[in-house]
Specification:
Blueprint (H helix, E strand, L loop, with lengths): L7 E4 L2 E7 L13 E5 L21 E8 L2 E3 L4 E3 L3 E3 L6 E11 L2 E10 L2 E16 L2 E12 L5 E4 L13 E5 L8 E3 L6 H4 L6 E5 L3 E7 L2 H4 L3 E4 L5 E4 L8 E2 L4 E12 L4 H12 L2
Antiparallel strand pairs: 1-2, 2-3, 4-5, 4-12, 4-13, 6-7, 8-9, 9-10, 10-11, 11-20, 12-19, 13-18, 14-15, 15-16, 16-20, 17-18
């Protein structure tokens, strides 16, 4: 990894991702550290940053639209009985320090701040591992600790009244191509079939690339998947699907997601094989 604010992740000496710790972004985009570009081992980019359709989609990272009313996702806020609404409620994730930095990963400390107050303190652990000559894995863990004196609840547009829009948590804005990517799990296929379901892994495949997302802990696997392919290509793990989880003062919420990044179009057997290699049985 090189550079003070934009370290580069490497796998077998090859750069596969740039991590921007202090982005200069408008407050409306909820500034936060992100990974972009992320590439396959052959160099194909599999992320997008601030695309025209959603300027607040920033590669790979953690984004939450509602932390006790504060927007850490960016853009408009979904308000019950009003719909998407422009509010001056955006927070920011601020890089504090790296506890560890290696060419293949890092441990980072962050502060989630809104309205001049620190709400959450995050420890983020990211590691890149070679799986095969054409695939590697991004192991991403985030731990959110409530540093306030009151419980903090996490919400989504779904919990605020918009069915099917339970985004918030780990989110990957994928490469947009002329044709929508294929999305499937071990037993389902298509956006309508896999969105909102729980599955050990979920694959997104484009023209020459594949992403396979897997919850790497039992608690993470309990979260349903948020999936978009037709409007835009993106996958997330829903922290607030049908209810608002609460973090008590001093308590910590932890999620871990491993993403296989592969050249070529994987089928279900290939995806499952690489997930087992990346996460274990």
């Amino acid at each position: 990894m090189t550079g003070n604010d934009s370290p580069v992740l490497r796998v077998a000496g090859r750069p596969v991702g740039r991590y921007v710790t202090r982005p200069e972004l408008p407050a409306r985009l909820s500034p936060r550290p992100y990974l972009h570009p992320v590439t396959t081992l052959a160099g194909t980019a599999v992320t997008e940053f601030s695309p025209a359709d959603h300027l607040h989609h920033l590669g790979v990272g953690v984004a939450v639209p509602d932390v006790e009313g504060h927007n850490f996702w960016g853009g408009r806020t979904y308000v019950r009985d009003r719909g998407p609404t422009e509010l001056d409620n955006h927070g920011a994730q601020r890089h504090t320090a790296f506890q560890l930095r290696d060419p293949d990963g890092f441990v980072e400390e962050l502060r989630w701040v809104a309205a001049g107050t620190e709400l959450l303190r995050e420890r983020r652990t990211v590691a890149a591992t070679e799986l095969t000559g054409s695939a590697w894995a991004l192991d991403f863990t985030f731990s959110l600790t409530n540093v306030t004196s009151a419980p903090l609840t996490i919400g989504s547009p779904a919990t605020n009244g918009r069915p099917g829009a339970a985004y918030g948590g780990f989110f990957w804005r994928a490469r947009k191509e002329d044709t929508a990517p294929r999305v499937f799990t071990a037993d389902r296929e298509g956006e309508q079939e896999v969105h909102g379901t729980r599955a050990d892994w979920l694959a997104l495949t484009g023209d020459t690339w594949s992403l396979v997302f897997a919850g790497a802990t039992e608690r993470t696997r309990h979260d349903p998947w948020f999936v978009r392919t037709e409007e835009y290509p993106g996958v997330g793990s829903s922290l607030a699907y049908d209810e608002r989880p609460a973090i008590a003062p001093g308590d910590t919420l932890v999620r871990r997601i491993v993403t296989v990044v592969a050249d070529g179009r994987l089928d279900a057997d290939g995806a499952a094989t690489l997930v087992r290699k990346a996460v274990g049985p």
